[in-house]
C-alpha cells in the first residue's frame, strides 16, 4: 500500500513526447529551475482564480504538511484553493464518500485494483488531454498501465516508494561488530547471532486503523519475489494460479520463519502476536532504543523517525536492501505509489491533476525532503535524504527487476480486504498458512 504513504517499472519515453510536453496547453513548463522561485508566470496556463479543489488521501502528519507546502505557490499564483484531507481510514472512507455522493474532487489512490473498481462503476473521470500528455511524457508505460482501465487512462502516477529495505542503526552495527548482510543466509545468520545474545533482532508493526494488515502483505510479496520468478509473482497477482498454490505457501512459511519466530520478534513490544497491535508508524522505533536491530519497511518509513533523527549511512538510522535468496535471480525490488484520480472534471480540477503530474511539481516536492517519485523529470540532486536518493536511483535504473505491490493490484475486495485480514489472523495464530491462503483464495471474485 502506498502511506502510507505507502503505495507499489521501468522508465523510457520518446523524445518527441518530451518536446510535445513543452508546448502542451497546460504544460506550465517543466523547467525544474523555475519551480518554487516565486515567479507566477510559471503557472499562467493553470489559472482559475477564485476556485477550490478538494483532495483526499492516506498521507498524513509531517508528510501531509510537506505536500501542502509543495503546492502552496501554485495555489497562490493560480487562484485555486486546494483543500487537503489525509485520513488513516482512507481506503474504507473513500468508498463511503463516493457511494454517498460526497466524493472528493481528487484522490491519491495507491491501489490500482481500487481504481479499476471506481472506473468500472463509472465514478471516475478519465484524465484530460493535458494530464495525459504530461503523464505520458514523465512516466513509463509500465507505470501508466496501473491506472489504465479498458484502454482509458484514469490517473497520473504521483509519489512512489521502494519497499525492499531493512532499517537498522549504523551506530549499533559498528559498536557490536555487525556487518550489513548482502544475502538472505547472511541476514538469517545475523538474526541468529543477535537472538543468541538474548535480544530480539526484529521488530514489526502492522496496525494501521482500517488498513491494519497491509505491512504483513508486503512481507509476503517481498518474499514471493525472492522465492519465485517475477513471472510467477505476476501469475499470483493476476490469479492465474490460486492464492493457495504451494508456491505462495512456501513464501508465507519463509516469511513466518522471521515474523512468527518468538526468538526473533517483536523487539521492544512483546511476542509475535504483538505485531498486530503495534502501529506501523511505531514498528521500527525500538531500533533507536537498542531494543531491536532490524525492521523491514519501505523507503517512506523515513518519515516516521522522530524529529532530529539523522537518516544516513553514518547516522542514527539507515537501511539496506532486503537481500535476495538466490543472487543468480537478479535484484528483485517491491514498490508502490499513488495515482491522482479525479471524481470531477471541472477545469480547475483538471489543472491541479495536470500540475501534479509535472516534473515541476515533482522537483518542488523533492526539494522539501522525504519524497520519492518515478517521474523521469525528477532531478536526483533535488532528492534530500540518502534513502530517497537510493530509491530514486533504483526506480530510474532500467535493470532493476521491479514489481508493484501485489495487494494493490488485486481486486479491492481481496487486496485491501481479505488479504489484509487474513494476514492479521495468520500473525495472531488464528489460522495457519494453509487456512489463511484458503480463506483468501475462497474470497476471490468469481
Task: Kindly describe this structure.
The chain is an alpha/beta fold and 446 residues long. It has 2 domains: 15-162 and 335-406, Periplasmic binding protein-like II (D-Maltodextrin-Binding Protein, domain 2), CATH 3.40.190.10; 165-321 and 412-443, 3-Layer(aba) Sandwich (D-Maltodextrin-Binding Protein, domain 2). The protein contains 18 helices and 11 strands. Strand 4 (148-149) and strand 5 form a beta hairpin. The relative contact order is 0.20. The model is unreliable at 1-35 (pLDDT under 50).
Compact summary:
With 446 residues, the protein is of the alpha/beta class.
In the CATH hierarchy, what is the architecture of the largest domain at level 2?
3-Layer(aba) Sandwich
Order of helices and strands: HEHHEHEHHHEEEEHHHHHEEEHHHEHHH
CATH topology call of the largest domain:
D-Maltodextrin-Binding Protein, domain 2
How confident is the prediction overall: mean pLDDT? 90
Keywords: Signal, Transport
Signal peptide: 1-25
Family: Belongs to the bacterial solute-binding protein 1 family.
Pfam families: SBP_bac_1
Topology at a glance:
Blueprint: H1 15-23, E1 51-57, H2 61-70, H3 72-78, E2 80-86, H4 90-99, E3 106-109, H5 112-120, H6 129-138, H7 141-144, E4 148-149, E5 152-153, E6 155-162, E7 165-168, H8 170-176, H9 184-195, H10 214-227, H11 230-237, H12 246-259, E8 295-296, E9 318-321, E10 332-342, H13 347-356, H14 359-367, H15 386-395, E11 401-404, H16 406-409, H17 412-428, H18 433-443
Parallel strand pairs: 1-2, 1-3, 10-11
Antiparallel strand pairs: 3-10, 4-5, 6-10, 7-8, 7-9
Amino acid at each position: 500500500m502506498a502511506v502510507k504513504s505507502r503505495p507499489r517499472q521501468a522508465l523510457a519515453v520518446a523524445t518527441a513526447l518530451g518536446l510535445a510536453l513543452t508546448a502542451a496547453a497546460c504544460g506550465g513548463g517543466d523547467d525544474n529551475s523555475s519551480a518554487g522561485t516565486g515567479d507566477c508566470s510559471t503557472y499562467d496556463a493553470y489559472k482559475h482564480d477564485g476556485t477550490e479543489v478538494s483532495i483526499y488521501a492516506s498521507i498524513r502528519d509531517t508528510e501531509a504538511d510537506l505536500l501542502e507546502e509543495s503546492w502552496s505557490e501554485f495555489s497562490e499564483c493560480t487562484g485555486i484553493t486546494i483543500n487537503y484531507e489525509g485520513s488513516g481510514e482512507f481506503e474504507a472512507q473513500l468508498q463511503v464518500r463516493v457511494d454517498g455522493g460526497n466524493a472528493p474532487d481528487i484522490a491519491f489512490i495507491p491501489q490500482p485494483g481500487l481504481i479499476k473498481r471506481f472506473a468500472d462503476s463509472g465514478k471516475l473521470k478519465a484524465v484530460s488531454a493535458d494530464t495525459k500528455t504530461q503523464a505520458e511524457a514523465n512516466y513509463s508505460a509500465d507505470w501508466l498501465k496501473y491506472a489504465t482501465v479498458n484502454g482509458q487512462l484514469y490517473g497520473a502516477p504521483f509519489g512512489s516508494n521502494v519497499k525492499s529495505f531493512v532499517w537498522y542503526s549504523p551506530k549499533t552495527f559498528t559498536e557490536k561488530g555487525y556487518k550489513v548482510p548482502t544475502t538472505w543466509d547472511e541476514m538469517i545468520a545475523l538474526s541468529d547471532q543477535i537472538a543468541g545474545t538474548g535480544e530480539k533482532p526484529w521488530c514489526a508493526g502492522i496496525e494501521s486503523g482500517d488498513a491494519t494488515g497491509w505491512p504483513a502483505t508486503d512481507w509476503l510479496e517481498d518474499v514471493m519475489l525472492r522465492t519465485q520468478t517475477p513471472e510467477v509473482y505476476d501469475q499470483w497477482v493476476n490469479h492465474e494460479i490460486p492464492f493457495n498454490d504451494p508456491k505462495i505457501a512456501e513464501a508465507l512459511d519463509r516469511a513466518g520463519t522471521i515474523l512468527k519466530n518468538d526468538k526473533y520478534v517483536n523487539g521492544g513490544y512483546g511476542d509475535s502476536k504483538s505485531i498486530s497491535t503495534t502501529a506501523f508508524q511505531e514498528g521500527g522505533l525500538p531500533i533507536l532504543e537498542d531494543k531491536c536491530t532490524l525492521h523491514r519497511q519501505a523507503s517512506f518509513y523515513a518519515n516516521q523517525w522522530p524529529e532530529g533523527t539523522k537518516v544516513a549511512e553514518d547516522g542514527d538510522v539507515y537501511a539496506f536492501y532486503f537481500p535476495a535468496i538466490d543472487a543468480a535471480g537478479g535484484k528483485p525490488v517491491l514498490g508502490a505509489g499513488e495515482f491522482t484520480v479525479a471524481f470531477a472534471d471541472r477545469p480547475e480540477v483538471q489543472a491541479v491533476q495536470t500540475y501534479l503530474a509535472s516534473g515541476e511539481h515533482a522537483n518542488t516536492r523533492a526539494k522539501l525532503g522525504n519524497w520519492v517519485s518515478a517521474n523521469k523529470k525528477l532531478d536526483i540532486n533535488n532528492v534530500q535524504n540518502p534513502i530517497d536518493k537510493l530509491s530514486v536511483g533504483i526506480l530510474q535504473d532500467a535493470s532493476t527487476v521491479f514489481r508493484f505491490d501485489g495487494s494493490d493490484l488485486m481486486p479491492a475486495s481481496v487486496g485491501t480486504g481479505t488479504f489484509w485480514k487474513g494476514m492479521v489472523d495468520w500473525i495472531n495464530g488464528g489460522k495457519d498458512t494453509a487456512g489463511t491462503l484458503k480463506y483468501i483464495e475462497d474470497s476471490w471474485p468469481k
